[in-house]
């Protein structure tokens, strides 16, 4: 059983229009131009695992209201085991409008979802009993209003106390606090500000400093997005830079989640784990998503070929 | 051969025997499931809690045959009883040893089990007894319709 965690899910709607103009009514008659899907970083990875052929994959988190039930149905359509705490409040709806000519991307991000303390307590209880079959837990994404920033720290501690490995993708205060519970792999992401551990990220040396700091604070291995590259921090202190070559990005959505999935897929399948190889798999999957309109992975052979265009350089730090 | 896992609903919505009835009721109405699986602290299936069973315990005498003249009295009594029952454990009201089906079972067996036990819903477990979800009559009908359309048309 693979367990992924999504605390702040959303229903994502993408509208593709010829030209996105203010004060102009748009009419969409072709269903190809309207996509509705369940969103949330942990969930996208769960769907990827399922697509790659894993048997039991569950997604743990909150869903709320009638839209939450709709979200849950969409998740079940992917044969993911839904494991949600049903909240009183409705979950989020994100709207994305993509104009073709000129190419525009307008996003309305909904951060109204709110969770009660009693519901958080229930999540902790459910999480404890639901991870008994999993060796590895992937925790990824933002935290809704009403949930304290130490939530990831608490979840990781529960998992580590039960001898599970934890892969964490987080940002801000939740990331900072989570490091204390010593997650095995950490990949921060940038949300509203380009900061990690309250440090501004501008030059490469800032990223290296942040990665090292995260390891000092408890993370065993760290991968930090650096423009289109990644800076990789192995647990023996070595630092690398992973760079794609000759690429054409047409889609960001799902690339990071594909990276996480392919990294873990390699880790699950190999007897002889190699950090660089795991990141090459991750990078190849992210590159494949970025160069296609797909959000989810399909087959390993689709993206394995992309690893030829990845380069790893050891950095002197 | 069609298997239960091809038609089931995958969900871990569940309560434990030491959860209280209030929590079970909240989960029932929010998830729109009037029957919930009861699992232990490792997520192994141990029984079933029915909304019907909770109702029968809070409307003691004439559930199902409510006389309109007594309705107000009965509802008030139910509310009064629920004040006490809501804090009691699921353990007290759950049905134990209910038949769960394996996710790798043949769908043909499901019709038998559902009709013979008069169950509208069966919980699904894996070979080790861990909860995986449920299968209900609409899923059974879905399977039967697929059989008709794939084999006879």
UniProtKB/TrEMBL annotation, chain A:
Span of domain Carbohydrate kinase PfkB: 11-264
GO biological process, one term: lactose metabolic process
Gene Ontology annotations for the cellular component aspect, listed alphabetically: cytosol
Record carries keyword Transcription regulation: no
Gene Ontology terms, MF aspect: ATP binding; phosphofructokinase activity; tagatose-6-phosphate kinase activity
Catalytic activity: D-tagatofuranose 6-phosphate + ATP = D-tagatofuranose 1,6-bisphosphate + ADP + H(+)
EC number: 2.7.1.144
Record keywords: ATP-binding, Kinase, Lactose metabolism, Nucleotide-binding, Transferase
Stored Pfam families: PfkB (PF00294)
Enzyme class: transferase
Pathway assignment: Carbohydrate metabolism; D-tagatose 6-phosphate degradation; D-glyceraldehyde 3-phosphate and glycerone phosphate from D-tagatose 6-phosphate: step 1/2
Stored InterPro entries: PfkB_dom, Ribokinase-like, Tagatose/fructose_Pkinase
Family: Belongs to the carbohydrate kinase pfkB family. Belongs to the carbohydrate kinase PfkB family. LacC subfamily.
Protein name (database record): Tagatose-6-phosphate kinase
From TrEMBL, chain B:
Signal sequence coordinates: none
Residue intervals of the CBS domain: 8-68, 94-150
Matching Pfam families: CBS
CDD domains in UniProt: CBS_pair_SF (cd02205)
Keyword Chaperone: no
Keyword Protein transport: no
InterPro entries assigned: CBS_dom, CBS_dom_sf, Diverse_CBS-Domain
SMART domains: CBS
PROSITE patterns xrefs: CBS
Keywords in alphabetical order: CBS domain
Domain of life per record: Bacteria
Name listed for the protein in its UniProt record: CBS domain protein
Species this protein is from: Halanaerobium congolense
